[in-house]
Design a protein that fits this description.
- 2 copies of one chain form a homodimer.
- Chain A is of the alpha/beta class.
- The first copy, chain A, contains 9 helices and 15 strands.
- In chain A, the strands form 3 sheets. Chain A has a 6-stranded mixed sheet with strand order 3-2-1-4-8-7, with helices on both faces.
- In chain A, strand 2 and strand 3 form a beta hairpin.
- At the A-B interface, strand 10, strand 13, helix 3, helix 4 and helix 5 of A face strand 10, strand 13, helix 3, helix 4 and helix 5 of B.
């Protein structure tokens, strides 16, 4: 295969790399041009100007993320789990032919409630993590992708078997900005973070425990500038406890994929609960995943 | 005792009644002048102009709510549970003497986490509910005050024994306004509300279940205008399950105190779980409570 352009096009941001035929990223563009800011008719123009022109207008391109959603360029229907991730190359949706421009579909599965659960973009990151080490294709693995909507994913023999989404990052953002718990998000206070983790306990009764973030300041004399770290520990601790319980998976090694400052916090929290973790940068994961799909023929 | 002025002065709103010596409300003022909008030095002026002047400048006044907090007129320290509510009249803080102006303190108790739990204003409503029927002073009772920060309170022999706070109302408001779940809050769709209650299950894994409010629209074809009712059912159902479990109280009759549209929703949810409920308007409860405290000598 030849060089191509790999694009991670999310709700609020766009990142694109020119990727060499051996998988090496050559150049990159990044822009705050998420799909939520773009009218459906305008995707082709934005893509030509922001991605194709600087990175090579004659190159084929493979896109993943919310660009394939109902607010994106074109809808790439969700594929129902279990899904062998390598096979996703056969399910891409083409929005251009010369050169090829294709969108990777998201995944759906039976959710914890009657509703389904969904991912878009993370499937490509998980594939990138699998592609990084061939031994990961065998056996049962647990992958956590922390973020606005964190995903916890059971991967078995290279296929996504099941996953759940936790709205942890979004809860942290709106509670920190708009609620009675609002604080200046400051540097992490490790002691307050650990106190929040401890308060999370088994992840039960979150709406009740949230109020403790206020009470510890108002009534118990904790420093207001530790509030953000406490809230972060409480939310992350609750997510970890709840996700591991509802997935009922006895895997003690967890792969974290995401932004390094965030995976580091999750590693701290998981370490405190006795789990072994590895960390992979989310940008590297998506690049590796797009490359794996291109090698499987997604752009043909 | 003589007529007096009773005031419920919260974070965002002020309500005051001239209350006759037999407890009958005679006239009322209401203003969007919550304590969060008033500088500490300005409380006496605002009170004189907005409350005393229209309702009778020579009358003593008893105030409850956030007016006694660290952002209020003067701090009335929390009293630690268990607290016999009638005895609160001995713990009021005077901010004026001729005529008397006094503030009712809030309550604190050991929380679900290491942090304390807190209430301010609800103690007066609970006392009003007790005062409404003398038989309520005997035995163990469970009271729920739904709102921005819902309170679940165990009352034993007229004393508040323990309580927990759930941030349900605030979570609903910020999720509906600022998150990916944002919706036009519309009229209640009973079917979607029941579906949300059902999804709440035992109240576990709330951050994970929240995402189902989005997935049921995006993936499962539910009508977007039912989203608000589903979210409301999910949050209220989670609160009820978690609060009853953490309080570990085997009371099947629950007294609801609050705004009638909200207590009606909780009554629906509790009824679906087999509990017997009664409802009392929050405004009536606070008036009755202030009257009970005035009769106990709070303004002397």
């Amino acid at each position: 295969m030849n060089a191509f352009i790999g694009v991670d096009w999310g709700t609020t941001n766009l990142r694109a790399w020119r990727i060499d035929n051996d998988g090496t990223p050559q150049s990159m563009v990044e822009a705050p041009l998420g799909v939520s800011a773009i009218a459906r008719d305008d995707f082709a123009n934005v893509f030509a100007r922001v991605v194709h022109e600087p990175l090579g207008a004659d190159l084929p391109a493979l896109l993943c993320g919310m660009v394939g959603s109902n607010i994106g360029w074109r809808q790439a229907p969700y594929i129902a789990c279990p899904v062998a991730l390598g096979a996703l190359s056969r399910h891409v949706i083409h929005v251009g032919r010369t050169p090829a421009i294709a969108i990777v579909p998201g995944l759906s599965c039976r959710g914890l409630t009657q509703a389904s659960d969904l991912m878009r973009g993370e499937e490509t990151q998980i594939l990138g993590w699998l592609a990084q080490d061939a031994t990961r294709h065998a056996g049962q693995r647990l992958v956590c992708l922390p973020g606005t909507h964190s995903k916890w994913v059971i991967v078995r023999d290279g296929a996504v078997e099941r996953f759940v989404t936790a709205m942890t990052g979004e809860l942290f953002a709106i509670l920190s900005t708009h609620s009675v718990l609002k604080t200046d998000v400051s540097t992490c206070d490790e002691e307050a973070f650990a106190e929040g983790l401890d308060a999370a306990g088994d992840g039960d009764a979150l709406a009740i425990k949230l109020f403790s973030a206020r009470a510890r300041i108002v009534a118990d004399g904790a420093r207001p500038d530790t509030s953000s770290s406490y809230l972060s520990g409480l939310l992350i601790g609750s997510e970890i406890a709840a996700a591991r319980r509802v997935l009922a998976v006895a895997v003690e090694e967890i792969a974290l994929i995401g932004a390094p400052p965030l995976t580091a916090l999750y590693a701290l929290a998981l370490g405190a609960r006795g789990a072994r973790v590895s960390e992979l940068d989310g940008g590297e994961a998506v690049r590796r995943g797009l490359y794996a799909l291109a090698r499987e023929g997604a752009l043909q």
